[in-house]
Amino acid sequence: MLNAPQKYIEEFIHLLKMTISPDNIQRKECEARLNAIDKETKLNLLLQVLINEKGSDILEISSLMLRQAIYQCTDVKQFNEATLNTLKNTMPQLCLQQQDRNLRCKYVDIISSLATLCYEDDKNHWPEVNSFFYECLVRSNHDIGKEIGLRIIETAPCILGDFNDEFLGNIVKVITETMSANIQTHKLFVINSLKAFSSLFVDLSSKRSKKYINTPLQIILHVIKNSNDVDTVSKFLEELNVMIECKSRALKEYIVPIAETMVGLLASQHTAENIRIECMECLVSMAEHCKKSFKSAAKAYLPAIIDVFIRH
Length: 312
Description:
Blueprint: H1 6-18, H2 24-36, H3 39-52, H4 56-71, H5 81-97, H6 101-118, E1 119-120, E2 123-124, H7 128-139, H8 143-155, H9 165-179, H10 183-203, H11 206-212, H12 214-226, H13 230-247, H14 255-267, H15 273-290, H16 292-297, H17 302-311
Antiparallel strand pairs: 1-2
Helix pairs in contact: 1-2, 3-4, 3-5, 4-6, 5-6, 6-8, 7-8, 8-10, 9-10, 9-12, 10-11, 10-13, 12-13, 13-15, 14-15
Organism: Henneguya salminicola
Keywords: Cytoplasm, Nucleus, Protein transport, Repeat, Transport
GO cellular component, one term: cytoplasm
């Protein structure tokens, strides 16, 4: 990475700050000047800002702009090799060092965007990110590492294809344990682990997904049935619906417990209206995507399901 003169960096930081100016004309002028900077120079300047600056506002703007620059690339070969290597080496370090959770999540998203870009034609051009991810999620003993690992799975599940069954089993074990935590004291981790598993389940092949669904699905259904936190139940139902829509074949043998859970909530007078709607959406998804299997497996629940739909 080329170190730009301090005067140049200060001018660049000024332009970044002006992108959130309430003055519309001034903001557009600054955006135009930033857009005129060539890609490699801009990437280097953004990295220097992330490495050397301390202000949260400027770090947030820089991280968003850096991620956008990566996202706009369609091929990893569009990067200068030196710049690409600097990104690969720098971002994981910055991520672990960042104490501000909001900024750390943005740094993880940069890593995920770069990891996704580097994974093309079923080949990973950044294998080191797998080691970083696994170290954070499985081997680290601190919450920051776990949070980073869960976020990477949610936003860049493509990297999981490189892990064999033993390592993937360890990953799912951590996710499952986190999803089982006390919702009152660890709500954020519980929801993050749910999103991570949903992303993992959807991205893996159906054959591999089937291997790891049993225990996590039991936890998902347990939370949906028993939690008094409506917001959490809603998020669990939302992710379950995504899993049904994307990987119904891997869930065919679980039609009965899923239908039983949905019907139970729909039959209860204490179920919130938004939860009822999401339960019905799950049932509709199962019926649409599993068709004959659903009709056969959930036969005993069909009268109750029909009754619920008539009443609602």
